[in-house]
Task: structure prediction
Amino acid sequence: MRSATALTTLLLSTSLLSVSAAPTASAPASVNWPEFRGAGAQGQSTAKNLPLEWSPTSHIVWKAPVPGVGWSSPVVIGDRIFLTSALPIGGVEDPKSDRSLHALALDAATGKPVWDVELFTAKSPRAHRKNSHASPTTVFEDGKLYVHFGHLGTACLEAATGKTIWATQEFAYSPVHGNGSSPVLFEDLLIFSADAETDPKVIALDKTTGKQRWAFARQSEAKKKFSFCTPLIIDVGGQKQLVTPGSGVVNGLDPKTGTEIWHFNYDQGYSVVPRPIYAHGIIYLSSGYDKPVLYAIKVDASSKGDITATNLAWRIDKAAPHNPSMVVVGDEIYFVADNGILTCADAKTGTVHYSERCTGPISASILSADGKLYLQDEKGLGIVIKPGKTYQVLAQNDLAERSLASYAIIGSDLLIRTEGNLYRVKK
Result:
């Protein structure tokens, strides 16, 4: 491990746009965005006065370049923003080049670097054209930042300084199309999916040491075993459960031990990406490639073993997402297919209220905040939608830069990661 300086030098030498104040380190938890999809892990925020309109030259607090390639979403704690990126070793961008895998912290008020650290190197790693070698989002807790690069390595850092507490590449596996699943924290465990092309697993590490505590071997009839889904911790009748979709199956596990509580099969679905969500006693998930199906699965304290035949509330076979995660607002669920068709349905019954062309091709997850839905497509077009049973576009905002990362919120501002930059956008 070594501290890298090239990224810091490049960021500091680049001018930033006008600056406004950021939350301090003592800011309340409501302004924090500690993991993929925010504090509740389901793409929702209580933030108010968020921007409605923006462009490359308006409503921008600052624009900070982020060298290398990465589609991890920003994590925000107080006055710090955390990202990961994969820089080409040798400095020349080439999809086949060896990679230097970095974690970095930015000052929230200015976008300037606070620290950056090289954690691992990877020799000619494979990745899909819509993936990167730094796609998993970090997770923060109690002054520590947990950084995960899938099969390429996992580490724990001091968030204030970037100092490495522990780092491991012990849990390497043979991926397909690179890495993608973000880690989650539960009590003293760091948990992540390791859905390789063979022998897919869910792995829990001791978060203080990086040593394995348990591993769950995923079983399904899917011929293609690889997936990229981030698990979700839910509460079912007072019992914490780890909901972890993989190829052909979603498992509900006891997060303390990795013991299976229940499972639900969905045949040959593979390369599952969207993070599941949970509302109204129902788990909502999309079954992945080749043709995704949106499943609504009822769970309660009596849900045990194979619940495939008994616990399906409803399903939708049309316009389900391959990549973007969904969101539930009140009694409605909103999901967007990768081709940009946004659907609103009754979350309890599956009755479709509308299904409309909304964006261009899209991979980023939907954000619900401030009485609005935010969607960011792959060309950098941000669409703002009014929630409700009728389709209503409030604004269209084009940054004209490739974008696959999901939004984060800082105070009353949006953070938007594009192919080369991180934007802080104000009202």
The CA atoms of residues 221 and 248 lie 6 Å apart. Residues 6-12 form the longest helix (7 residues).
